[in-house]
Amino acid sequence: MKLLRRLQENVELERKNIQQEIIALACKYCYDEIKLLISIPGLSILGACAVIADIGEINRFPTAKKLTSYLRSVPTIKSSNERTHIGGITKRGRKLSYELILQGIDHTIRYSMPLNQFFKEKIIGKRRVVVRAAIVRKIIESMYYMLRNKVIYRFYNEKNYQSKQKMLDKYKILSYAA
């Protein structure tokens, strides 16, 4: 048992070191973009780094719709003549960002009043999974406009954002030391 416990502690320590290296490296190249994205409640610094890595340069996408499609958050649509069937989320596109945003979605819904209100309106008569997918799509659209216009999330939580910013600044110092 002691051996397993030590192994677990070593793995956890290594995970933290790798996480620090990833964030420090990301801070070297896209500190400003990460700083904007961490203003979204529920999105961690590492999550923001992964989203930026998935997106690359925001100017590649002419519209928010193109970005949401690229990040796998649009439904499949089958249409024939006058019938249109809107299905589940398409399997095409980058999966990582969608899943990272989905991990913090409950926190986002709780602390972002417009998304909370949207959730309460849409949950009536729909499955929770469907509404959460719609919220992820809204968050990705918000990210698009935030990165395009260089503004922080409009409904951010000041206290939460300040603590994330302090942590990000520590990583930035680490990136200069490396």
List keywords for this structure.
two-stranded antiparallel sheet; globular; 178 residues; mainly alpha; single chain; 8 helices
Descriptive overview:
It is a single chain. α2 packs antiparallel against α4 (96-103) and α3 (64-70) crosses α7 (128-149). Strands 1-2 form a two-stranded antiparallel sheet. The longest helix is centred in the N-terminal third of the chain and has 36 residues, at 2-37. β1 (75-80) and β2 (83-89) form a beta hairpin. It has 178 residues and is mainly alpha-helical. Helices cover 68% and strands 7% of the residues. It contains eight helices and two strands, in the order αααββααααα.
Low-pLDDT segments = none
Per DSSP E runs of 2 or more residues, the count of β-strands stands at: 2
Radius of gyration: 18 Å
Percent of residues in helices comes to: 55-70%
Strand portion: 5-15%
- The secondary structure category is mainly alpha
By DSSP (H or I, 4+ residues per run), the number of helices equals 8
Main β sheet profile: 2 strands, antiparallel
- How would you spell out the order of helices and strands? HHHEEHHHHH
In short:
By secondary structure, this protein is mainly alpha-helical.
Task: Give the SSE map.
Elements: H1 2-37, H2 45-55, H3 64-70, E1 75-80, E2 83-89, H4 96-103, H5 105-111, H6 113-122, H7 128-149, H8 158-177
Antiparallel strand pairs: 1-2
